[in-house]
């Protein structure tokens, strides 16, 4: 009778020891997880501070570069002027790229802290998502109502693709991420725009960075990809192939050709240069350079007598003036 009793006692002691060990392990695990969680938070906080500090420094550098660009002296030799402008624009673009990269890292930390940033909502009609812009809050995004129907299958059409995307976001009142002064937007708005622009890109384009979750980086990478294949000499040859004489009568074809050439130039130049006077001067000289001498004099006279309407893009105003002269 003693043996079974002794076995039973030891079984009870073994169970008690096992329970105590399990409790200790759980407590240790909880303590370790708590410490790791605190450590992760500390690391993220330090990362955020470091990114924000670097972001401030690069923004300060960018301001200096823009001031330098504004004071860039124009020259009668358009090629020399263009080379100077492009070198400075390249430096500005690298700084902008670094700024966008830092903004993306900051946004990724914010996104991790707000995992349901693009949470679905349902009303009486269908599913929608809420997002904020810099000027409004709680805008509703219904997927089927926001149709971007332009598709790009070849690198040659990237400038046209980006132009159509800009028109799209303007139509639906998103923030204009092509504007220099806009570098940070609502992470939910960013995600929506990334989804839309990626849907318009054909996989065969093989654009570096289109898997990014930063709309600024995607746009910059598209421009960079295009610039690699369309350098200064290629673009100059494209302009030289166009000669407008008084006998031109296919106005629509001419307008399309000039608009595409302008879009290529605006795609090549960095984002910060889109609305600056130096680009306006460059585009004016390029468009006037396509005209026969007699036509150029007439166009310049018309430009002098009819000032530019600020509500119309300057290059559009120039092209329209050329077409009007031909029609007259």
Automatic annotation (TrEMBL):
Q: What is this protein called?
A: Uncharacterized protein
């Amino acid at each position: 009778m003693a043996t079974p009793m002794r076995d039973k006692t030891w079984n009870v002691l073994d169970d008690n020891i096992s329970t105590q060990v399990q409790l200790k392990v759980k407590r240790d695990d909880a303590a370790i997880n708590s410490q790791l969680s605190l450590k992760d938070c500390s690391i993220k906080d330090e990362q955020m501070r470091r990114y924000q500090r670097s972001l401030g420094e690069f923004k300060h550098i960018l301001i200096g570069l823009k001031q330098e660009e504004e004071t860039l002296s124009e020259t009668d030799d358009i090629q020399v002027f263009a080379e100077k402008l492009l070198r400075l624009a390249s430096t500005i673009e690298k700084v902008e790229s670094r700024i966008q990269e830092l903004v993306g890292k900051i946004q990724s930390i914010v996104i991790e802290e707000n995992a349901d940033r693009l949470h679905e909502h349902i009303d009486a009609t269908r599913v929608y998502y809420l997002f904020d812009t810099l000027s409004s809050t709680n805008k509703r995004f219904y997927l089927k109502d926001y149709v971007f129907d332009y598709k790009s299958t070849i690198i040659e059409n990237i400038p046209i693709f980006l132009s159509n995307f800009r028109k799209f976001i303007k139509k639906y009142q998103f923030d204009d991420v092509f504007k220099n002064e806009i570098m940070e937007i609502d992470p939910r708005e960013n995600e929506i725009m990334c989804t839309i622009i990626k849907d318009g890109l054909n996989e065969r384009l093989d654009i570096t960075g289109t898997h990014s979750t930063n709309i600024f980086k995607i746009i910059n990478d598209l421009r960079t990809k295009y610039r690699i294949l369309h350098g200064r000499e290629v673009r100059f040859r494209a302009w030289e192939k166009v000669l407008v004489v008084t006998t031109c009568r296919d106005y629509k074809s001419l307008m399309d050709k000039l608009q595409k050439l302008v879009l290529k130039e605006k795609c090549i130049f960095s984002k910060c240069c889109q609305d600056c006077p130096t680009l306006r001067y460059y585009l004016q000289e390029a468009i006037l350079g396509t005209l026969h001498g007699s036509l150029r004099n007439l166009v310049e006279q018309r430009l002098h007598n009819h000032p530019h309407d600020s509500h119309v893009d300057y290059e559009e105003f120039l092209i329209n003036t050329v077409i009007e002269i031909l029609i007259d």
